[in-house]
Amino acid sequence: MIAVAEPSIAFDACRACGRHDAVQRDCIRGHRIAQCPGCRLAWTHDARIDPATFYDAAYFEDANAPKGYNDYFAMAGAMQRTNRKRLNHIRRVAPKAKSLLDVGCGPGFFLREAVDRGFTSHGIEVSPFASDFGRRELQVNITTGAIDAGSLARVTESPDVITMWDTIEHLPDPDDALRRLAARLNPGGVICITTGDITSMAARITGSRWHLYNLPEHLWFFSPDALRCMLESAGLEVVNISSEICWYTAHYLVERLSYSAGIKTPRIPGASLLKRIPVPLTLFDIVFVTARKPA
Ligand SMILES: [Zn+2]
């Protein structure tokens, strides 16, 4: 019998640094994760979803749905603490900024906080459910759609600040999105991005059970180097890279721990109490990057 070698899997060129020698790093629930040995960007192309239908009401608030959050809206109070901290950072790095664009704004809690702090604010959100909620319940200005020419044409004021909180890892084409956003940003303006760090200690220790291997919605897993490469390719200068401490609810932390253990938990004992307890946390696996467009 002649042994037939397994065909080698050819991955695309790295979208951050351009190398062509990506290797398979993991296989998560049937999805192959490729990784660039240079900048450490990792990605999957096996998990394509239709974002306009995937991020529906069930994604945000149905504990029985096999995706998303048990109750996203219960985290509003905890998120407000994180949002205030993020706005304090923006005021430090861009003290004269007046207009803000939040990309992947979800239901718009950050936008609401930005408006209350005096920013002229606009959001872009692919989920019709979330953007409808923001317009209706929070009275914030959100365009429903992808990050494309059509959505950006509806942003009436050129932004001094663009924010992407836990969004870039969801995008089918993050490099293309960054180029479009950089072109729309005012000269001297800043862009702030948070996303998971696949080179972090937490990611390395937990391996295939890393809590941010959140498939099929997460398509990209960044390193600080990969983010820097992609931002610089878009014409931006990185001014700060750090890790972020966020506020969650105790309920959400139990939900994520269960997910990492492979358990979907429709019912968590003491849920109503746990949803009221805000908890600050970092596993030092969220990278927070600030970049500036040259004036
Ligand atoms: Zn690379």
List keywords for this structure.
295 residues; alpha/beta; Rossmann fold; seven-stranded mixed beta sheet; 11 helices; 13 strands; 32% helix; disordered N terminus; binds zinc ion
Put the structure in a nutshell.
This protein is of the alpha/beta class and 295 residues long.
| Category from helices, strands and their pairing | alpha/beta
Distinct bound molecules: zinc ion
What is the fold-level CATH name, i.e. the topology?
Rossmann fold
Distance between the termini: 67 Å
Strand fraction equals 15-25%
Fraction of residues in H or I helices: 25-40%
The CATH architecture comes to: 3-Layer(aba) Sandwich
Radius of gyration based on Cα positions: 19 Å
Strand order of the largest sheet: 6-5-4-7-8-13-10
CATH class: Alpha Beta
Poorly predicted parts: 1-8
Explain what the structure shows.
It is a single chain. With 295 residues, the chain is an alpha/beta fold. The protein has a single domain (49-200, 223-292), classed as Rossmann fold, CATH 3.40.50. Helix content is 32%, strand content 21%. The chain is built from 11 helices and 13 strands. Strands 6-5-4-7-8-13-10 form a 7-stranded mixed sheet, with helices on both faces. Strand 2 and strand 3 form a beta hairpin. The longest helix has 18 residues, at 76-93. The N and C termini lie far apart (67 Å). 40% of the residues are buried. Bound molecules: zinc ion. Zinc ion (ZN) binds at residues 14, 16-17, 19, 36, 38-39, 41, 226.
